[in-house]
Amino acid sequence: MRYAHVTRAFALVTLASAPTYAQAPTAPTALPSITLPAELDRVLRDYERAWKNGDEDALAALFTPDGFVPTGQGWVRGRDAIRATYATSGGGLQLRALAFAVQDTVGYIVGAYGYGDSAPVPDRGKFVLALRRARGGPWLIAADIDQSNRQQPQ
Hints:
Strands 2-1-6-5-4-3 form a six-stranded mixed sheet. It is globular, with a radius of gyration of 24 Å. By secondary structure, the protein is an alpha+beta fold. The chain has a single domain (31-148), classed as Roll (Nuclear Transport Factor 2, Chain: A). Strand 5 and strand 6 form a beta hairpin. The chain is built from four helices and six strands.
């Protein structure tokens, strides 16, 4: 009985004093793009086109009347606020879909974005578009949630 306690204690001390090996974080592998149904792909292509043209009216029209967009200070809500937020948009934006789902009048698109006019461009960030529509109507963006791939200081 006493021998078992000594053996257990020795094993614990050995394990506790063994060097630990931390794995260095690896860069995530880019996930493959998927093909969206036409009615969802239209949302992404219209977004790209309006962004490239610096057309904040067209961008705001892609959203529900009570849609949300994040800013550096929090959220803005509604088409007027979205229009003002996107007033300085412009340039080549490329959106690619990674996943989607729709059910009746709600859905989402998960994707990645990059900047530039020639394809393909490297992913600079990721997004989730929460979607909503009236029955039989076009899909509109209820919330646009995005985040840069840039490393944040710790």
